[in-house]
Amino acid sequence: MIPFLIAQAGMVGSGTPDLVPSLWRVVGGLAVVLALLAGLAWVLRRSSLLKRGAGGFSVESALQLGERRSLVVVTIEGRRLLLGLAPNCVALVTELGARPAFEAAVTQALSKELPS
After folding, report:
1. Does residue 83 contact residue 70 with C-beta atoms inside 8 Å?
2. pTM confidence score
3. Euclidean distance between CA atoms 83 and 60, whole angstroms
4. Whole-number Å distance between alpha carbons of 83 and 80
């Protein structure tokens, strides 16, 4: 029992532990964990796992025609379709052509405005 008390007296006499380095270590560890979580969220957002329409299906636009009736442009596996939606019916109105690239659309719009 006496050796235990002597050992405890030696530890008590050494002073109080310094909490500042451990606090900095905790704050630094928290910053690293938060940075890793933010990086993972950014990677998942940029990947195709969380993108809308990742399964080959996306809704480009919708137009409400009245109570519970609408026209919807959807893209399914590279095909653009105009669908008519009603309470008990989904009907294919027409298949649309591919959407032109931005540069092609600007060139076409400028050629219409400027006479050659």
Report:
1. no
2. 0.44
3. 11
4. 10
Counting beta carbons within 10 angstroms of the beta carbon of residue 73, is it exposed (0 to 12), middle (13 to 18) or buried (19 or more)? middle
Cα separation of 9 and 14, whole Å?
9
DSSP state of 17: -
**pLDDT reported for residue 13:** 47
Nearest in space to 72 (alpha carbons), one of 56, 55, 89: 89
Give 52 or 46, the one with higher predicted confidence.
46
Residue given tokens 């990947």 in the structure block: 47
Q: Are strands 79-86 and 89-96 parallel, antiparallel or unpaired?
A: antiparallel
Residues 6+ apart with CB under 8 A from 13: none
Name 65's Cβ contacts closer than 8 Å, sequence gap at least 6: 71
Q: pLDDT tens for residues 85-96? A: 999 999 999 998
Rounded Cα distance, 50 and 47, in Å: 7
CB-based contact 59:73 (threshold 8 Å)? yes
